[in-house]
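Training component of the fellowship. As part of building independent skills, the fellow (R.M.) carried out the full modelling exercise for a liganded target. The chosen ligand was zinc ion. The inputs are recorded below so that the supervisory panel can assess the work.
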Amino acid sequence: MGTIICQSCNKTIDVFEGEKVMTLYAKGNGCVHCKTADKKNK
Ligand SMILES: [Zn+2]
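Fellow's submitted model of the complex:
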């Protein structure tokens, strides 16, 4: 199983099936968590 981590907020944004356990960092900003935090700040 793999995990996709947001590079900006370090939160897990998605998981995917896979033979190996691995972690990928999503490039850029704009996951759900980031957008939510952004709205709160503004
Ligand atoms: Zn994020």
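The panel noted the following from the submitted structure. Residues 2-41 form one domain. The chain has one domain: 2-41.
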